[in-house]
Amino acid sequence: MFTNRLALLFSVLIGLTLIGFYFFGPEKEVDFNTDIKPILNKHCISCHGGVKKNGGFSLLFEEEALAATESGHPAIVPGSASASELIKRLTHSDPELRMPYQRAQLSEEEIDLLKKWIDQGAKWGKHWAYEPVKAPELPSNFSTAGLGGNEAQAQAPIDFFVQEQLTAQGLSPAPKEDPMRLLRRVALDITGLPPTEALARDFSAGKITYEQAVDQLLNSEAYGEKWATWWLDLARYADTKGYERDVSRTFWPYRDWVIRSFNADKPFDQFTIEQLAGDLLPDPTQDQLTATAFHRNTMNNDEGGTEDEEFRVAAVLDRVNTTFEVWQSTTMACVQCHSHPYDPIRHEEYYQSLAFFNNTRDEDTHDEEPKLRFYEAEDQAKVEQIVNWARQNEGNVSAKQRDNFLKFYEPKYAAHLILRTEICRAPRHRL
Ligand code: HEC
Ligand code: HEC
Fold first, then answer.
1. Nearest CA owner, ligand 2 atom 23
2. How many angstroms separate the CA atoms of 330 and 308, rounded?
3. Exposure winner among 260, 283, 332, 389, fewest CB in 10 A?
4. How far does residue 51's CA lie from ligand 2's centre (Å)?
5. How many whole angstroms separate alpha carbon 233 and alpha carbon 222?
């Protein structure tokens, strides 16, 4: 009798557990990046972040969030939502203490997520953009797997992922386009121009395949001209100075260098090195020096009465911001004044980066020196003759000096800032 009851009790308990498991499932792990960070960034960071740290509490970096606040205790106690001041503050009855301060209360769902997150250990996470890139897995037989009867459409690995999403959204791919229209589209895409008559003729007559047509387009000069436009936007390319009267300056040799690089299919690492530090390469070529104009594209204010050093610094800041924007897709500009409210970059790190750029001589002068000289081929040959003569008759050091003299418009080794300061000692004399 007794054992029967016990068995019954056990079966009921097991049944209830199973039902509970079925309805509620195992507790899902709360993910900091997708579940928690968006709540903190939306409702808390403006008062508890890189700028304002009310109550001595910041949610910007993990060690700050877990550190003792002005109260002397940490506001987050990993593993215990009920012991965490952060959670108490979300539903506090005193409006002066309830967070977010003087704003609408968080939703029950948001409060619940924050509680779960702390109970599960308040695990921090890196934003996905700071995790190493991983290639997504592709089924080995991707051209037929899961393509829902559209095998014929799949040509490249990316088609698999497109198809996967189309299926998920209940959509089907558009029918294959007419070949001549495809040719027109791909020509516009690659060169910015419609296909030439000859290309259209050869393609429609079946003399060349689609792939051969694409190769021809990639080989045309127009390919580099079109695709350089995006890079030139990133490089803040302009043939004018930007401020005030926006007067002109000669910059197009850099533009041509970018176009040539695209057309030569220059590897991205080399393309990067030459633009950021072409002048630091051993015996840089004229082309590698031209590439460094990337960071001479800063605006320049040569209006009367401006401070040389002010606009030199403005240019250096711009170089830090642009380098991070272009190569890291990060709005580093924010960190000039305070730690980034959204990215894990500290104020000090901004100036550590700036130190790399803070050795330039350019100022807001009319002539924008130092500049690179360009010679016609015939004059270039004479320059080489002179440098060779110097090497043979005066030695390498002298040859290098003469080479620099003929290559740069300001072959001095001291910044003109120093020279100007000396001249400026004359009272009320302004240069
Ligand atoms: C409009 C500004 C503002 C916003 C938004 C805000 N807070 Fe606060 N918070 C304050 C101020 C001011 C204090 C300091 C006074 C106090 O302790 O109440 C404070 C204090 C705190 C404290 C106490 C720190 C301690 O231990 O002394 C916690 C925890 C806190 N806030 C959490 C949050 C959370 C979580 C959010 C977002 C859901 C948030 N706050 C949003 C202004 C804000
Ligand atoms: C030129 C300096 C400077 C730059 C650049 C700058 N900030 Fe700020 N930021 C400040 C100052 C100063 C405050 C404090 C303002 C105050 O106390 O009300 C502030 C405050 C903030 C706050 C708290 C705002 C609030 O609600 O009080 C946030 C968030 C913020 N900045 C984000 C950014 C972002 C994002 C960028 C880049 C897109 C940026 N800042 C760039 C100077 C700057």
1. 46
2. 29
3. 283
4. 7
5. 17
Q: Collect all residues with Cβ–Cβ distance below 8 Å to 343 and sequence separation of at least 6.
A: 127, 130, 330, 331
Could you tell me what percent of the chain has a pLDDT over 70?
86
| Rounded Cα–Cα distance for residues 311 and 141 (Å) | 58
**Structural domain boundaries in the chain:** 32-127, 179-219
Q: Alpha-carbon distance 252 to 235, whole Å?
A: 13
End-to-end CA distance of the chain: 110
Reduced to 3 DSSP states, what percent helix, strand and coil does the chain have, rounded to the nearest 5?
A: 55, 0, 45
Residue (of 202, 305, 224, 335) closest to 271 by Cα position = 224
Q: Per residue in 91-118, pLDDT tens?
A: 999 999 999 999 999 999 999 999 999 9
| Residue 101 CA, ligand 1 centroid: distance in Å | 6
> Does 46 sit in the ligand 2 pocket, CB within 6 Å?
yes
In whole angstroms, what is the distance from residue 376 CA to residue 293 CA? Answer: 20
Alpha-carbon gap, residue 84 to 118, rounded angstroms: 8
**Rounded to whole angstroms, how far apart are CA atoms 259 and 223?**
8
3-state secondary structure of 185: helix
pTM of this prediction exceeds 0.90: no
Query: Do 227 and 271 contact (CB within 8 A), yes or no?
Result: no
- Confidence grade of residue 6 (pLDDT, cut at 50, 70, 90): low
Q: Is 100 in the pocket of ligand 2 (CB under 6 A)?
A: no
Which range among 20-29, 66-75, 302-311 has the greatest average pLDDT?
Answer: 66-75
How far apart, in whole angstroms, are the C-alpha atoms of residue 350 and residue 358? 12
Question: Encoding tokens for residue 334?
Answer: 């924010």
